[in-house]
## 1
Amino acid sequence: MARVVLVGNLKQFTGGIAEFDLEAATVRQLFQRLAERYPALGPHLEEGIAVAIDGAIHQDAWLEPIGAASEVHLLPQIGGG
Amino acid sequence: MAEATTAPAKRKLKWVGKRAPRPDGVDKVTGRAKFGADLFMSGQLVGKVLRSTLPHARIKSIDISKALALPGVKAIVTRDDFQDMASEFVPAGEMMINYKDVVRNIMAREKVLYEGHPVAAVAATNAAVARQALKLIKVEYEVLPHVIDVDEAMKPGAPLLHEDMITQGVEPAPTKPSNVAKRVQFAVGDIEAGFKKADVIVEREYHTQPVHQGYIEPHACIASVSEDGQADLWVTTQGHYVVRAHCARLLGWDISKLRVTASEIGGGFGGKTVVYLEPVALALAKKAQRPVKMVMTREEVFRASGPAPGAWVKVKIGATKDGRITAAEATMAYQAGAFQGSPVQMGCMCAFAPYDLENVKTVGFDVVTNRPKVAAYRAPGAPISEYAVECALDELADQLKIDPLDLRLKNAAKEGTRAVYGPKFGPIGMVETLEAAKNHAHYTAKLGPNQGRGVASGFWFNIGGETCASINVNEDGTVSLIIGTPDIGGSRASHAQMTAESLGIDLSKVRTIIADTSMLGYTFLTGGSRATFAGGMAANQAAGDVIKQLCSRAAKIWEIPEDAVAYEDGFVKPAGANAGKFPALSIADIAKKAGKTGGPIVGHAQINAQGAGPSLGTHIVDVEVDKETGRVSVLRYTVIQDAGKAVHPSYVEGQFQGGAVQGIGWALSEEYIYGADGRMQNAGFLDYRMPVASDVPMIDTVIVEVPNPRHPYGVRGIGETPIVPPMAAIANAIGHALGTRLYELPMSPPKVLKAIGQNEAKGQGRGH
Amino acid sequence: MSKHHVTTTINGDPVEYLCEVEQTLLDVLRDDLLMTGSKEGCASGDCGACSVTIDGRLVCSCLVLGVEAEGRRIETIEGMAKGDALHPLQQKFLDHAALQCGVCTPGFLVAAKSLLERNPNPTETEARYWLAGNLCRCTGYDKIIRAVLDAAAEMRRS
């Protein structure tokens, strides 16, 4: 089970819950399971989300593997000038 | 089998790290290089924009009939020529953008929301006719009250820019609309408990003004649309694929119909990541069936293209007597301009990012005002919040009587530190830059009367993103590297260096070409300090693909298994049991026979680069304050920053120096000044005062290299971080010179004089 | 509106053109003669990207009318290299990485050449003040000043 942490405003869509354990082998699976559990969160995972897996930030990387004991943070996508 | 993608950083590097010649250099010192306004097409028309002179008004009607009748006018577009777009957020250069807003920003619909807002555009046979036509367009307005400042815009009863704007991120959702588009919050630990443990607490409020990116080349493009709908756009931009996506979307065209070519780009700094003229020029060109060239004046650049936001930031930091921070809090409101989407979220995430803190909370407000929509500017959002935090830290150090670098070292983030925004850092160079600063001769040099020294650190994430690269192996063994990120300051050179390194060939054999959008797959823009990082990663993978093919061809020629060959320094050699059985084949040998062994050799890579590593920096500055005039002179400046790996040290130093001087401008002289009428009063380089050569000293640099383990050459990306520390470093230096502090940017002579006056009145002047 | 006929010399070549009375020399150079090396950054004489010399005097070509070139000797960035030999300033700008985006570079080179013609041995301060009419937003000026001083030293040697 990966430890999943929602950063910033996302927990507004989960009734205030910011941390939970979830079984997911990839980022896409993680998004699907999160959207199933919290339908209000679903649309906010479509665009503009970065996923940090064990500290390394990934953007738009559905296929990135998530380890069984990984720590995963969902945070706003990062841009730049 | 050869493997080009194993970390070459571990082997001895021949090209990466060299101050190599720049492929586009000669063109740029001879005037040959073609920038946005330098292309001419036969039959081209001149496009000009009619802009609102009012900061806020409802458009009752637009009458173009007289203008259309003027001889030489070939097309006019207004809001009626652009389909309205539904509210839909998509990632753009800096942050999420909403097409509903973009279509309104390129051409006003219901209302004009800032002075400079486009209302109509004309294509005519020459500039004089176009200008005359603009005067003949009659726009009837219902003037509305306007609001320019964030504080005013946030008050109940303030004039509303968008009558349907309900603040996001507030639970329960407000029932009434306001100018606050969004509230964001990031929190770790328990700040109340943290502040209780503090022996000393510093609490301050800071204000900053909008500043423009100040690129010397104004926005420019030339558009051509044929009768069958195939379109070409030549444009100065940081990302021509992004321009293509936005234009196709706004015009409802197939992406394949539009080919966008990036001209040479005369600076961008984030400001050339969005569209202004481009969809308008395409719409005019389609209507007129003639090419249309559009170039902004400098005044238009100031009034209608994105500055960085002005803001206020409240900071509260608590620490124990020995300098360990127990809690930190920041609340900030950023001007978004006329449409939502300021970089306040990034401001919140970066504010305390250089530090290892248990209890942190940042809250941000994204506020719309009757100003041009802000655009990215180098490390968007970060310079403002980090300025406030780094100034407060300096006061904390003063109060604790701890050296400011030691205070930072005591709290510095390291590998494994949990960032305020959640994840744990990989290897980062905060401690290394602080130690380099402490050991630098500058830090202990003697200061004279009325002089002060300041330090500050800075953080930026850096990004990767979608990136393509192709390597064509030519018949003589030279290679063309095709890449999709516009070269804004030497990336052709750094990409060529990494390619030569990966292929083990001479740098002179590599030519870097910037593709137009039809030549390569989608490639995200040059921004976020990603071009050298992500482009290098893609080029390295494309080189790996080339090497694989070279090995396969050699094996076929020798009639031995593919895994019985090895690739080294530009040669394929028989390996293992076959070692020495055949003479090694160079790239040129194999390329010459490519046609006979299966066709040309072309390596590709199409990636979404991940694993960007943050870049941290620490700046030291000495200033002298003229107590009679209030003028602050920067006497000495040192930039120390972690580059991961400097592929081309000269251009890394250049980024450090350029960012520092932009920061000097932000700190001392640059600001948007608005009148009570809601109009900008200083829309020109004479009154919007960017640093000139005589304003600044040499900018000393120290490149720290803590390699990014996720990049084949250890690259982090270095372009943004240098603009983060200067404002605080200079504010702290002025504070030490005067014995009193300023809390507002720019620290221009009137403000400095006022601070001196207050100081002397209080009899607290430390004086020298 | 009738156009004016102008006879002038640009980079040593005799040139004739017709221009409107309100056209600036920069407009003529860029739009009519297609010499786009001189850039328009502001059109108000503040950025120096359009620097040229007229009879050896450094000017912003955006502040000079096209008709004023009559009978004068104009030098632009396009005339700076001789054949395939770069001017020492051009070479030093490359050696010192004194350009990033490169759009201000032609103006800096023309202005720096004008400085060295008057003062072959400028101090750093003299170079900084002479070039204060040219804006660069990329480099922070450090490498530009170094390149100019280095070119001056080399030109004094030769």
Note: The two ends of chain A are 37 Å apart (CA to CA).
## 2
Amino acid sequence: MRRVAVTGWGVVSPFGEGVDPLMDAVNAGRSAVRAFAGRNDGPWPLRAAAWNDSYDPRAHFPLAQLNSLDRTTQLAVVAARAALAMAGRDGMPHAEACGIHVGTGMGSAGTLDSTYRTYYADNNTRLRPLTVPTVMTNASAAQIALETGFAGANLTYSCACASSAVAIGEAVRRIRHGDAQLMLAGGSEALVVPSVVYAWEALRTLADVDAAAPSASCRPFSLRRSGLVLGEGAAFLVLEDWDAACARGARPLAEICGYGSGSDSGHLTRPTVEGQARAMAAALRDAALAPAAIGYINAHGTGTQANDSTESAAIRQVFGDLADHLPVSSTKAVHGHLLGAAAALELLVTLCALQSGLAPPTAHLDEPDPACALDHVRGAARRLPDITHAMSNSFAFGGTTGVLIARRVA
Amino acid sequence: MDTLETLRGMIIDKFEVTADEVQPQATLETLGLDSLAVFDLIFDIESKFDIKVENDQVQISTVGDVVSLIDRLRKEQGKTG
């Protein structure tokens, strides 16, 4: 079976564009979460969120093109461009051998929000002509194809918080099976807009704003956790047939060697230990690895009561006593929950941890919940000089699970 | 301001072309507008000139065609003066 190399990556996160601002903050436990009383586009609940206000659309796109690009699509294109630039295009396979997989939870939420406002609030039936191609859930994949000319698979996966784990995992399979030589795979999400934030608020899943320290509002695995914090951004990886990548002179940065996905089939929003454990076990089987091979887990760790205790129990179920000395962290504490882009961004964090031998901490974890008894990396990043493999977990509302395992490249 | 000048300003602002490029004989295609961009421009023209452009009237090629269409519709729809 073909091996799958990562040869490039790109990201737009709440910390800005590029991997360095993201990893500097993640490793330092420095949070982009802020109290958010809203922008000038409608009433907002007072909530914490992690968003990027340094991003300048005009630095990346001509004015005319922005008419048809939701923020979600813009972030996707910018991250995908960066990933391709890193991988280099010399000797790239022919267009039909190159595909695009995108994960997104809610797609073009901002454009939909403003369109509905025009129709319902402004009582105006004159909607922008490009509304449909702008809000279609596959808009990001379509725009990336227009830019790259990639003529292979062009698919959008929407399974809530596991969307980009599945987008990447299925891209790995596509390469392994010889259906593609190169896949640009990742996710994008930009739903910090009034109607969406109110909808999350209504579900009683958003964290309370920590009045004394708003940046510490998201506290995964903590006794004091009160919910998740929404974030926005996009992350993309260039995945390639290992041998073909080497033959064209691309440098493998890591190998994606395991993927497991399934369904909790238990409840619309409440995760199950069994479902999460099945996905981790499936990823280990797929990678032909024993649990002891995993040296770090980037947890789903949303900061909700239900997820964190469930995920901790699932890790215990799969890893047994090994979990006593298996470093785990959730970086959502600092970049928020990017939903459809979460898995891609967190896999990128995981790959950087593998490459540097430095596991980032779970920030704001002064008081771990005894129900989440794991070997938490907290306070400071932890050196893991001998690490060979790491796991990234993503578990979605609706029950879809997605677990990816990466191998360090010496 | 006459129709051409108003339209020229709209096209310059929206599509980042120069005033010299927006001549009556220039085709919308050479200005970089594909069929979707034309729909988007027509949307703004309808607002700006307070007219309604029907689906069978959007087959326009040059800047001059657009000017003629606007002037004709303004007259037909009683929006002159």
Note: The mean pLDDT of chain B is 93.
